[in-house]
Amino acid sequence: MKVDDYMKLPYHISMVRDETGGSPATVIWVEELPGCISQGDSPADALQMIEDAMRGWLQVSIDHGDPIPAPRRESSHSGKMMVRLPAALHAALDNRARLEGVSLNQFISTALAGAVGWHPADHASAHLEAVRRPAKRAFAEQKA
What we know:
Elements: H1 3-7, E1 13-18, E2 25-30, E3 37-40, H2 43-64, H3 87-100, H4 104-116, H5 120-143
Antiparallel strand pairs: 1-2, 2-3
Helix pairs in contact: 3-4
């Protein structure tokens, strides 16, 4: 396969806003391609930069005969999972949930979300913005 063939594959791209350095930047990477990372001043800029980084990463891998990982398949997460844990931990979680006046399920969900920095409002607003963006563009084109 050639670089252009790989560029058409559905690789997973992640980005985060980084405000730890001097100027804020958007850091972006391809999850399946180790070390394929870039950054830009804005999300749009970062998306352009990661395309160049991917092309370079893929070309070097092809030139050296290195294996190129395939994009991972989307998994279907139902929202249900079974977890085995020590009985004492189960009891402690149940006691804490009761003290806070929430169900054990809600308490564990909130604790896990906090552990990975996931906030439902952030997730929902990002999804909503992704849905709104094409609509805003179409509306702007209609007005023009």
